[in-house]
């Protein structure tokens, strides 16, 4: 039985760090263990200028105060970004995140139309400049079908811009896993929670608000397709936690905010999941190497040593007035982080 496992230079390619006291609370919970993360721009207001992006990066670096952690910033997609603006900002960002308007938390100013012709000027500039496009891929259809209905939109963008790197963010369906192999320029992230849960876990019994997120968790066959792809470290699939903290009172209320908070448990739970499925040998590819290759990131040596020992997940994480509940709050995971080494 394996009792020690090492993850080198873990990367979280889809992360919400928020701002203010929440950033100060959750930032270190990622930066202690991960070597880098792709930071989502859906602040209020969203990150749409170079000044806003650079000052957010500085606040992140202050909150994280950890040398061996690189926050990779993104911009919030807008149709009116000029080529010159994008050329000027290109070396400062890892990608641009596109949200259909109103589809998820803080996406009200996202794009109103997913028509390729409407998006063309900005996507053409991004393609020329080699800026990856990250997409929250959901229509505003029936909630269980939103991702599936978005597949033709991914296809039309992938076909129209063969040189543009497109990342389907937080995929939740078998259809999305299958689409990965159809276009060279399509990649994806998948979360921890979508590898673990289905809609039943969230809403099949008593409602579990802390498992409520967008896209909503789907059917067992979807979860199985995602899990199979992750366990074999499909080369176009990366770990992106989509850890999305909301204050406890905004989750445990009428009108629960969407988002699952997983940063502090992600590496332990992934190790447990990969071990239970005899796939530990692929975990470093899933949580580091694939992203490094897809995004051309420099290697950093930061080793997280995990041991097979109970880890009781805290019921809440608190800082000043902020309180946030992690996935598996109060439950026991069977891998613990023992040390972090160079
Ligand atoms: N995943 C979520 O349910 N919520 C995210 C936004 C997002 O990634 O769609 C958030 O910012 O809270
Ligand atoms: Zn999203
Ligand atoms: Zn997200």
Automatic annotation (TrEMBL):
Please report the stretch or stretches of sequence annotated as the Amidohydrolase-related domain.
113-297
Q: Which cofactors go with this protein?
A: Zn(2+)
Where does this protein come from, organism-wise? Halarcobacter bivalviorum
Q: Which GO terms describe its molecular function?
A: dihydroorotase activity; zinc ion binding
Q: Check the record and name the PANTHER family matching this protein.
A: DIHYDROOROTASE
* One Gene Ontology biological process: 'de novo' pyrimidine nucleobase biosynthetic process
Active site, renumbered: 242
Protein name, UniProt field: Dihydroorotase
Q: Which family would the database say this protein is a member of?
A: Belongs to the metallo-dependent hydrolases superfamily. DHOase family. Class II DHOase subfamily.
Superkingdom of origin: Bacteria
Recorded hits in Pfam families, A to Z, give: Amidohydro_2 (PF04909)
Which reactions is this enzyme annotated as catalysing? (S)-dihydroorotate + H2O = N-carbamoyl-L-aspartate + H(+)
Which NCBIfam families does UniProt cross-reference here? pyrC_dimer
Which EC number(s) does UniProt give? 3.5.2.3
State where substrate binds. 16-18, 42, 136, 246, 258
Q: How is the cofactor bound?
A: Binds 2 Zn(2+) ions per subunit.
Residues annotated with N6-carboxylysine modification: 97
Q: What does this protein do?
A: Catalyzes the reversible cyclization of carbamoyl aspartate to dihydroorotate.
Organism lineage reads as:
Bacteria, Pseudomonadati, Campylobacterota, Epsilonproteobacteria, Campylobacterales
Recite the UniProt keywords alphabetically.
Hydrolase, Metal-binding, Pyrimidine biosynthesis, Zinc
For the ligand (Zn(2+) 1), the binding residues are: 14, 16, 97, 242
**Assembly with partners or alone:** Homodimer.
Q: What broad class of enzyme is this?
A: hydrolase
| Entry GO terms, CC | cytosol
